[in-house]
Specification:
- With 489 residues, this protein is mainly beta.
- Helix content is 7%, strand content 48%.
- The protein has four helices and 34 strands.
- The chain has a single domain, classed as Pectate Lyase C-like (3 Solenoid).
Length: 489
């Protein structure tokens, strides 16, 4: 199914038909010497392939120990079925530092396990396993918490007290980073126990991530695929069990992201499942780092089972820019811990200041939700409401609280069925709200629909019974208009 915006057809990168076996360059299996690090053997094989015009660097069946692997252009790192690369637990092996983006802020830090810097035509393929052995990195997070990224974003990179390059300890690397690269393929492999983020796509384009498994349930900030100021991206047929967001779209934090100002755009995410996605995370997430903007995203055909949240939009003051033209449909959600569909513009609290971000032009349809405390929660900023949000063909089979809308404009609910324990729907400060074929059923001792807020008005109800509505804050049926304004999409 084609996305509802213009996007190039992505093709697999092609490589010369020649193979460079790491054993031919000095690699030794752990079965022969469990302490032998094959870092140099990997690099010799990669350099030989590069010098020959490119090709497949083969990791045969067996267990292999290595430090970080730095890829080169025209290289396919192929991890065979039955092969596992275990990455060293000695932090010194990840020096010298390399450039990366740590949770939206540029820094120099320990190398990721696999690093692709300013490359073209590059791949990681095969049915093998990459194991980061991340426990020794997680200890830092438990002891020290998160580095002060918001403070670091206020000063130029050369003067940031942020990361190993500036003398700071405690910042964990990501597992795999593609930086300013293009024509990228990640396919087939399994990633286990990342230090934090797994596949991180930064300032890159023409990317396919297909049929991979990510297991990072124990990893703090163990996000699966992170699309960060990148474009023309296809993410499909993947399985996630992650210690944070399964698939997340970002574009930089606050001053740093606003100055760089590179959006994430033209992204398709489809045919995937997220199970037991934890630590406040979601199946597909937008933000919280949105300062470069996010636009033209198409998500469809997914299962979220046992995740903390389902579809999540999160940002706050200071981020600025716009998240827009987002299309999401055909998602099954079960056993969600917090919200199934959530828009949160106060991510770390209302006290934060700075440029206000905007969510607008978002279309969500054909969603089935069964088992959630809060089904649909949308909260806009007082100075910048959520705008043009469209929900269609959604069934909430079981929830505690149904719908909660706060500071929204030009919102459409069409063919919506909500079953909840508490009041099914509360609307506070909404203008131009259209409801068509909406069914609200709850166990609340009163009406299922409440309107309140001094700025609520221009509500279009085509067929909702008036005796199921309650008004507060001086509102009355005067806010209701007769003709529904339903946009076809």
């Amino acid at each position: 199914m084609s996305p509802p915006f213009e996007m190039p057809v992505l093709e697999r990168p092609e490589f010369p038909d020649q193979t460079f076996d790491i054993r031919d360059y000095g690699a030794v299996k752990m079965a022969e010497d469990e302490s032998h690090k094959n870092t140099d053997a990997f690099h010799r094989a990669i350099e030989a392939a590069y010098d020959a015009g490119g090709g497949k660097v083969l990791v045969p069946e067996g267990d292999w120990l290595s430090g970080p692997i730095h890829l080169m252009s025209n290289i396919n790192l192929h991890v065979s079925e039955g092969a596992t690369i275990y990455f060293s637990t000695d932090k010194e092996d990840y020096l010298p530092v390399v450039k990366q983006r740590h949770e939206g802020v540029e820094a120099f830090n320990y190398s990721p396990m696999i690093y692709a810097y300013q490359l073209s035509n590059v791949a990681i393929t095969g049915k093998g396993v990459l194991d980061a052995q991340g426990e020794h990195w997680w200890e830092w997070y438990r002891e020290l918490g998160a580095p002060p990224r918001a403070i670091a974003s206020k000063v130029p990179l050369s003067r940031r007290d942020f990361g190993k390059g500036s003398g700071m300890e405690g910042m964990r690397p990501n597992f795999v980073i593609f930086w300013e690269s293009e024509n990228i393929l990640v396919e087939g492999v399994t990633l286990n126990d990342s230090p934090m983020w797994n596949v991180h796509l930064v300032y890159s384009n023409k990317i396919i991530v297909r049929d991979i498994r990510i297991n990072s349930l124990m990893a703090p900030n163990g996000d699966g695929v992170v699309i960060d100021s990148s474009k023309d991206v296809l993410i499909e047929y993947n399985h996630f069990e992650t210690g944070d967001d399964a698939v997340v779209l970002k574009s930089g934090l606050n001053e740093d992201g606003l100055n760089i100002n590179i959006p994430t755009e033209n992204v398709v995410v489809r045919n995937f499942e997220a199970r037991d996605v934890r630590t406040g995370s979601g199946g597909v997430v937008f933000g919280s780092e949105t300062s470069g903007g996010i636009k033209n995203v198409y998500v469809h055909n997914a299962l979220f089972d046992g995740s903390d949240r389902g579809v999540r939009f999160k940002t706050e003051r200071g981020r600025g820019n716009v998240v827009e033209n987002i299309y999401i449909h055909d998602i099954e959600m079960r056993n969600i811990t917090y919200e199934a569909i959530n828009f949160n513009t106060f991510y770390t609290g209302p006290q934060v200041t700075g440029p206000s971000p905007q969510f607008r032009n978002i279309y969500i349809s054909d969603i089935h939700i069964d088992g959630v405390p809060n089904a649909i929660v949308m909260t806009g900023l007082p100075e910048k409401w959520l705008e043009n949000i469209n929900l269609k063909n959604i069934v909430v089979a079981s929830s505690e609280e149904g719908v909660r809308l706060t500071r929204v404009k030009d919102v459409t609910f069409e063919n919506i069925e909500i079953h909840s324990t508490k009041r099914a729907m509360i609307v506070e400060d909404a203008f131009e709200l259209t409801m068509k074929n909406v069914t609200l059923e709850d166990s609340f001792d009163g009406t299922p629909l409440l309107f309140r807020g001094l700025h609520t008005g221009a509500v279009f109800l085509s067929d909702f019974p008036l005796d199921q509505i309650e008004f507060e804050d001086g509102l009355s049926s005067d806010i209701l208009l007769e003709e529904p304004q339903v946009q076809e999409w």
